[in-house]
Automatic annotation (TrEMBL):
Keywords: Amino-acid biosynthesis, Lyase, Pyridoxal phosphate, Threonine biosynthesis. Residues 99-332 form the Tryptophan synthase beta chain-like PALP domain. The keyword Ion transport does not apply. It comes from the Bacteria. It comes from Paragemmobacter ruber. This is Threonine synthase. It catalyses: O-phospho-L-homoserine + H2O = L-threonine + phosphate. NCBIfam families: thrC. Belongs to the threonine synthase family. Its cofactor is pyridoxal 5'-phosphate. Pfam families: PALP, THR4_C, Thr_synth_N. InterPro entries: Ser/Thr_deHydtase_PyrdxlP-BS, Thr_synth_N, Thr_synth_N_sf, Thr_synthase-like, Threonine_Synthase, TrpB-like_PALP, TrpB-like_PALP_sf.
Amino acid sequence: MKYISTRGAAPVLNFGEAMMTGLARDGGLYVPEAVPVMSKDAIAALAGQSYEETAFRVMRPFLGDTFGDDEFRGLIARAYAGFGHAARAPLVQLAPNHFLLELFHGPTLAFKDFAMQLIGQMMQAALEKSGQRITIVGATSGDTGSAAMEAFRGLGNVDLFILYPHGRVSEVQRRQMTTPVEANVHALAMDGDFDDCQARVKDMFNDFAFRDGVRLAGVNSINWARVLAQVVYYFFSAVALGAPHRAVSFTVPTGNFGDIFAGYIARQMGLPIEKLVIATNQNDILDRALRSGAYVTDGVKPSISPSMDIQVSSNFERALFDAYGRDGAAVAQLMAELKAGGFHISQGALEMLRATFASGRCSEEETTATIRAAHAATGEVLCPHSAVGVKVAEENLGPTPMITLATAHPAKFPDAVEGAMGLRPALPPRMGDLYSRPERVTRVANDLAALQALIRERTGH
Ligand SMILES: *Cc1c(COP(=O)(O)O)cnc(C)c1O
């Protein structure tokens, strides 16, 4: 299995190399040269299997010889052992044809644990073999950083630096990033918003002297290994509802387009997914782009679903690559135009995207109203991101069963939930001491040179 860049001008890599590289050297994102298809029988045989066995069968064809079969099974087992629910990703029913996939039973209570726990295990295993040590730098709007801290703390061959926008993450998210005691993980609170954090991380990757000097690797949602780990729960939930004999649709609360792109890969692998519905909050660039064809940035408006407060959805580049017939030069041109504010999606590409994706937007008031209404109707307490999904899903219900991804536990965003329904959701007992652990964080300016100096100093490069 070979991986190629969406901009067509970076080295072709195998799975292990693509995982360690993150962003391609031409600025593009790695995608499989060809997506392996699972036969109808192979999908049917997933019925009744554990999450871990499903993960093994779905991901194995993408890995080449990076890991042996027994080794990979061991990594999967370790990745999901710390989850607080035996099913890992349980489905609950909200309405006659509407289901909620609870992806928030991992150690940091958001879906990002599914990918991050596994990529931590996979990177450490690969580094132990090669005897190398790497530096991971990631930007976060909150949940990526906490998931990464939890997944990488204490791993012997990795130093992890997480940049988060100072004052713009929830207290639970912040504490999950600032309370791990292991010396190899570093929380950095930066002045600016998430896009500023993401831009500085991209700058570090584009500075090849720095990149090679500290052996920089990335775990943001552009990392192919993260996307791949997320493909699994599309299979797991669809099969639980009768796939491949029955089609399903998914609605996905979307920010960086990573989670929903995993659904697109599942569909390409042969999973019968009718519609993939993009659900955005008031930061609605994707919804506007799909409706109008104009992908134009518009500044970030802070919302009560902050993990989706993003104006440039990095992984959308992967969908564009396919929509433009895998023409890397065309994608590179679009991304150059984006730097200057935006671009128009060609008619052909727009038709391809609309054949796969639907979209909708949920305002702040609608988010609050949906949390309240879902609780009254079902007793289910939704986090604000999941509420965005449920609202948009309700506009897209039809004869095909709809699965909405619940991306975080409500206790991760207690203020928004309390504001909506008057009850403060409690943390699961296993995390009860989060508010009493000491915090450790470094405040940093939005300044590339200063950030690089700090990282060099702490890693000894
Ligand atoms: C990261 C995140 C999202 C958005 O996921 P993308 O892969 O960036 O689209 C949605 N909800 C929550 C709770 C998240 O942490």
